[in-house]
Write a structure and sequence with these properties.
Length: about 120
């Protein structure tokens, strides 16, 4: 199938598919005129890639995980699990930092509210 058909079937943009190819996450063959052609398996691949992006993974991380998909083994599965755990830890740390930032903003807002009250009573 051509790129437009794959995009429609997978529910993504043609631009996204080109990006996936640039990152080495998706592969196509080229016709004599240079048009990209994909197999039916590409629909599942793109759906999988979308799930990975929705989980907050970068293209680089997804590329590191693909050996588990493309050549499943105990070794690649263990490596993928370890990499996903690292990403989860990174997200947990980021969430904690966001909570600290929100709490600091809450403190500033409380100070502002208190200051506004002094302006009303003055």
């Amino acid at each position: 199938m051509r790129i437009g058909e794959l995009a429609a079937r997978a529910g993504v943009s043609v631009r996204a598919l080109r990006y996936y190819e640039e990152q080495g996450l998706l592969h196509s063959t080229r016709s004599a005129s240079g048009q990209r052609h994909y197999t039916q398996a590409a629909v599942e691949r793109v759906t999988f890639l979308q799930r990975m992006y929705e989980a907050g993974l970068s293209s680089r991380t997804i590329a590191e995980l693909l050996p588990c998909v493309d050549a499943p083994s105990e070794e690649t599965s263990d490596a993928a699990m370890e990499r996903m755990a690292e990403e989860r830890d990174r997200l947990t740390d980021h969430i904690a930092e966001l909570i600290r930032t929100r709490d600091a903003l809450d403190g500033l807002m409380a100070t502002n509210r208190a200051h506004r009250e002094t302006l009303r009573t003055a």
